[in-house]
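Researcher: I'm comparing several assemblies side by side, and this is the next one on my list. It has 818 residues spread over two chains. Same procedure as the others: predict the full complex and return the structure.
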Amino acid sequence: MALIVQKYGGTSVGTPERIKNVARRVARSVAAGNQVVVVVSAMSGETNRLIGLAKEIQANPDPRELDVMVSTGEQVTIGLLSMALIAAGQKARSYTGAQVRILTDSAFTKARILAIDEDKMRADLESGHVVVVAGFQGVDEQGNITTLGRGGSDTTGVALAAALKADECQIYTDVDGVYTTDPRIVPEARKLDRITFEEMLEMASLGSKVLQIRSVEFAGKYKVKLRVLSSFQEEGEGTLITTEENNKMEQPIISGIAFNRDEAKITVLGVPDRPGIAYQILGPVADANIDVDMIIQNVGHDGTTDFSFTVNRGDFAKTKAILEEQVKGHIGARDIVGDNRTAKVSVVGVGMRSHVGIASKMFRTLSEEGINIQMISTSEIKISVVIDEKYLELAVRVLHKAFDLDQVV
Amino acid sequence: MALIVQKYGGTSVGTPERIKNVARRVARSVAAGNQVVVVVSAMSGETNRLIGLAKEIQANPDPRELDVMVSTGEQVTIGLLSMALIAAGQKARSYTGAQVRILTDSAFTKARILAIDEDKMRADLESGHVVVVAGFQGVDEQGNITTLGRGGSDTTGVALAAALKADECQIYTDVDGVYTTDPRIVPEARKLDRITFEEMLEMASLGSKVLQIRSVEFAGKYKVKLRVLSSFQEEGEGTLITTEENNKMEQPIISGIAFNRDEAKITVLGVPDRPGIAYQILGPVADANIDVDMIIQNVGHDGTTDFSFTVNRGDFAKTKAILEEQVKGHIGARDIVGDNRTAKVSVVGVGMRSHVGIASKMFRTLSEEGINIQMISTSEIKISVVIDEKYLELAVRVLHKAFDLDQVV
């Protein structure tokens, strides 16, 4: 008997009819001999509706209170899905994050999971129940309701799969797998049958919205077998995210082109070139719970250097303010400049490890289209560039073609 | 420093603008030197929306799962009201029923409060917070979310006032007090400045929808000073519900005309006239958690009698089925008959104790309009009759006039 965790996103549970479909799919998995834990998001549009309501009351909603109300979106779905299962003759029981209990830290609106109590779930599974858990939420030591931030339902799914040592964590979404890039931008984009955790991590963190990065990190760390599937297709194996690299002879060098439209660039000019300076700049930013993405520091000259990094566009103004107020005078920087009309494009692939010339091919392709590269950052399996936002679609298209991603392998 | 519990119903928190109004009213009470605990309902329409969603999934929603999702209505409101208070510069903190914790039994959709933990609320009040609590909900011993049934937010308010030994429990609603009867039926209906708990209990249980009966029971039992006020008027003292009877010389004999449109009548015919028979009939009904209202048994003849009672119209079919299946054969009754197109009208007043002739005046008034009385039930301070539903408005109007309730005293 296999233990499967299935996670259904907001679109998959967007209407009562779709919730009944999910119930049928879950019941089929139980009929096939599996124990099933289901994690669900809020019905599509609901989280935005709730946030909208909150903003009508308070422009910057109090984080604790925002979590109290936004967490109701998933709570409604777990009740409805459990009813649909019971109506279909399948025993089921729902749990909020607090009821499970999914213990998190107290960083409201972006909490991290610390521990999961699996006893209730185990007991329910043993007695033939499907366990339906609200994604995206937890509870802190003091009993306050917390949320994990946008996309956190994926993280809940993987975390439950890890805690329960599930045989597979299936992420059902509105796409049928992970693609070489966003098909809305490149119609020739192909579905990948499998992808490594490392590649997926780069794809996810770089803006391919199929899976949330934290869920992939979790899955990699706890060796959770992760599969992305469509909740709207009865057939299809989706994309398996695995620790094993593709061992075909002619493996593709590049797996995909990822991008992130919400990238804002900030540069601290004329920074004294001495040890500890990066921490002095980024410490206050981290303290404000702002995620920093790319970080670049060039070799200095005249005892000073320039320090650049990117943040989510929504954090741009706040980050600049923090640097102006807490950092600039303190470290004696010359100026803080930034641009929030930038985007990031990356080529990702484990094949890069054994092939040379990927970077130069990428840069030449962009150059031929007259696209200026503002920042470059590389890892073992990806090369990212920051460019003017207006060139984003063009860059993705020409790179997809340049690396033959539209060719069936 | 007084400790006030304020309860705001769904209409009072029906829009973001109204929630801000409530926040201003609460903040004023704090500024006047009070500690304030606020209990709120779901935004108007929200509970029905959620129940509608549930019924699209399951015709008779699973009670446990229904409570999980319906309880989110109040959870949204506590978050929003806390934000509004914080935005207005007033420290505030919200709690769900489970967080407080409001311990109930496990009768999903109609749970009863067993105990309230006041520690968190006390600590918050001491540190200058307004405490915002979700009405209508609690949590059972096993951590399951429960709801108290329709109108349960009033009960939450009074229960919190009792637990905290509050100086006053203010119920804000869309009317400015308790009236001699429903002004939509009798435009001449007058607001009462004060009413006794006993009268209010009769008025509430008989269908005046201002306050839920359980909240009045609670308030009377724990001597909670209860006041009904309008949340839409800045001025006005509302109606005080008190233990003291009106000591005016010329006190009105009758305080009001109450009615209940949702009354269904059931008669068990040819019941053996022996001890224990009432329990044998109503035991199974109570086991099904169905509230029985009026109960009438006439003197028997030929060793049998007829046993009649009324239930809420929504429980009519279920009650009849229970009697047919579990009771009829068991006790050897001749037949079960019923009518769900009935209504109950009552005259209520403590003055009745010292005045004679109220009943005969009531019966004569109805008789003069050709209204047939199907059942009669009396208590020390009320006389109720069951009549055909179609005569309800007429009966209320003529009784209101007959007892001079339209005259200013």
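Model: For your comparison table: Residues 3-174 of chain B form a domain with the Carbamate kinase fold (CATH 3.40.1160.10).
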